[in-house]
Design brief:
heterodimer; A: 115 residues; mainly beta; 4-stranded antiparallel beta sheet; B: 110 residues; 6-stranded mixed beta sheet; 5-stranded antiparallel beta sheet; 11 strands; 0% helix
Chain lengths: 115, 110
C-alpha cells in the first residue's frame, strides 16, 4: 500500500490567493482527518469525515476554510482567500474504524507558506 | 474542553531508558495514544491504551491509569534514531477523534 498520499508537498502562495490541498487515503479506511501543525498551536484537528460524510468541522478556523470528500479515495482542503497566518504544515490522515487500535496513518503533509 | 500536559524536552544517552509522561483533563475520555514524529516527517502511530495497564511493543511500552488521568511512554535501549518528538493524544468520544498534546522532544546523545 502506498499509504496516505498528499499533494502538493510544498506550496508557496501570495496572500489572497486560493489554495487547494489534496489527499488520497488508504484504500479501505473509512475515516479521514485534516490536521494543521504549527509551532505555536501544535497539531490541531480541522475536520474529519466518516464514509465521506463530514462528522466534526468544529476545528475549521473560519469560513475561508472548506473541505470536501466527494468519494472514498479523495479529499480536498481549500483556503480562500489565504492569509499569512495560514502558513503551517497540513496533514491528512486516515484510519479504519473497525480495527480498534485507533491508529492513524498520516500523509507526508503539505507545507504551506503564504507570503 | 481538553488539555494535555507533556514535558517539552527530555534528554538521554544511547542504551538508556526514558519515560515520557502525559497528564490529561478531558470530558468523555476513551483512550490514550502515542505518536512519534521525526523532524520534517509525519506523525507515526506507536501505541494505544484503552484500558488501565501496560502495553508493550518491542522496545516501547505505554501505560495508562484512568483514575489518575495519567499515562506514560517508556522507551528502552535508546538508539540515536529515537531522537524525535513524541505526542500523546486522547480519544475523547465514541468516534475516532483524537486531540493531541503539545509534544515532547527527545534528544538521544551518544
Amino acid at each position: 500500500d502506498a499509504g496516505v498520499i498528499q499533494s502538493p508537498r510544498h506550496e508557496v502562495t501570495e496572500m489572497g490567493q486560493e489554495v487547494t490541498l489534496r489527499c488520497k487515503p488508504i484504500s479501505g479506511h473509512d475515516y479521514l482527518f485534516w490536521y494543521r501543525q504549527t509551532m505555536m498551536r501544535g497539531l490541531e484537528l480541522l475536520i474529519y469525515f466518516n464514509n465521506n460524510v463530514p462528522i466534526d468541522d468544529s476545528g475549521m478556523p473560519e469560513d475561508r476554510f472548506s473541505a470536501k470528500m466527494p468519494n472514498a479515495s479523495f479529499s480536498t482542503l481549500k483556503i480562500q482567500p489565504s492569509e499569512p497566518r495560514d502558513s503551517a504544515v497540513y496533514f491528512c490522515a486516515s484510519t479504519a474504524g473497525q480495527t480498534g487500535t485507533y491508529g492513524y496513518t498520516f500523509g507526508s503533509g503539505t507545507r504551506l507558506t503564504v507570503v | 474542553g481538553q488539555s494535555l500536559e507533556q514535558p517539552s524536552e527530555v534528554t538521554a544517552v544511547e542504551g538508556a531508558i526514558v519515560q515520557i509522561n502525559c497528564t490529561y483533563q478531558t470530558s468523555g475520555f476513551y483512550g490514550l495514544s502515542w505518536y512519534q514524529q521525526h523532524d520534517g516527517g509525519a506523525p507515526t502511530f506507536l501505541s494505544y491504551n484503552g484500558l488501565d495497564g501496560l502495553e508493550e511493543t518491542g522496545r516501547f511500552s505505554s501505560f495508562l491509569s484512568r483514575s489518575d488521568s495519567y499515562g506514560y511512554l517508556l522507551l528502552q535501549e535508546l538508539q540515536m534514531k529515537d531522537s524525535a518528538s513524541y505526542f500523546c493524544a486522547v480519544r475523547v468520544s465514541g468516534f475516532q477523534k483524537l486531540v493531541f498534546g503539545t509534544g515532547t522532544r527527545l534528544l538521544v546523545s551518544p
